[in-house]
Design a protein that fits this description.
single chain; about 210 residues; mainly alpha; 12 helices; globular
């Protein structure tokens, strides 16, 4: 049905999923006969431009999306990222406060807060935020590894880096966490446990 925008968007998603960015762009352009200025279409264009390394087209599309919908989590998040990249930390904090009015509990929200705390060198806040994020998202590998690194750096025993990584593995085992856990056991001279992690990690590799 060529008059239904959703069909265009779904087809563009299929092309993007299969790394056919040029075909996705063609579909998005065709969708403009149905909706001339749709943010959902522009978002797909932006992804396709990024994959085909059309940097200027991606940036102009991004600016257009933000102009169409300035009061949104997406636009606030973009303003935050830009300010942080430019080390304008007060501006980044204002953008983050706005962002959190739309989204205060997602992984991306935690990532933004952790990034700003790191930039401000507020390491106690970093530790607190990482632990909060880890409690909410116990299957997140990044949070587990950051928390383990903090525990290792501060020589914390309650919990220790090994405790944190083992707790994470109880939810989901990943190659990265098993590597980190193996390294921690080596630091403790626990060769048997380190080898156990290594062998478990090797079993995760595809055959051949």
């Amino acid at each position: 049905q060529p008059t239904v925008l959703l069909n265009y968007l779904l087809l563009a998603d299929v092309f993007l999923h299969n790394d056919q960015a040029d075909s996705a762009l063609a579909v998005v352009r065709a969708s403009r006969t149905v909706a001339a200025d749709c943010i959902l279409s522009h978002m797909r264009s932006m992804i396709a431009y990024a994959r085909t390394e059309q940097k200027s087209a991606r940036e102009s599309t991004l600016e257009h999306i933000m102009a169409l919908n300035p009061n949104s989590a997406f636009s606030a998040g973009q303003r935050f990222s830009r300010a942080l990249e430019q080390e304008k930390l007060d501006e980044a904090e204002r953008a983050l406060i706005e962002y959190r009015t739309y989204d205060s509990t997602s992984r991306l929200s935690f990532d933004h807060r952790i990034s700003l705390a790191i930039a401000r060198k507020q390491y106690v806040d970093v530790s607190t935020l990482v632990n909060q994020a880890r409690q909410k998202y116990p299957d997140n590998t990044t949070y587990a590894i950051i928390a383990a690194n903090i525990a290792d750096g501060t020589k914390s025993k309650k919990p220790s880096a090994i405790d944190i990584l083992n707790e994470h593995i109880a939810f989901t085992a990943s190659f990265e966490v098993l590597s980190a856990l193996s390294s921690q056991y080596l630091k403790e001279s626990n060769i048997a446990k380190a080898l156990e992690c290594y062998e478990r990690k090797m079993r995760m590799l595809p055959v051949g």
